[in-house]
Amino acid sequence: MSAPSSARTVEIRSYRLRPGSRDGFHRLVAATVVPMLRRWGMDVVRHGPSPHDGASYLLIRAYADLEARQREQDAFYGSAEWREGPRQAVLDPIEEYLSVVMEMDAATVDALRQE
Question: Cys-Cys link to 64, which of 68, 78, 82, 88 (CB 3.0-4.6 A)?
Fold first, then answer.
């Protein structure tokens, strides 16, 4: 059975950050990384500190399908702009991360969007 045409592939990435680093990480992501991701054509749905503890952070992105996710991430993470830019500053406070990928209809994706 094929997915409905309004279905989006959504990646929810959860980060566990080093103690005391979340505020700086958020400033870097909000001011530098999210605008960069958007320039590269990625649909950033939501990002920010998770309210359940002081070390968790989330990033939600939506893609047309799994192939688009792979293509867009390969292009972005392989770019000189990322590798020679904020990459190391972003990676340093991350202890670990986990990505979950699922399909959602467009209305659900829009309901998750940050205001």
Answer: 68
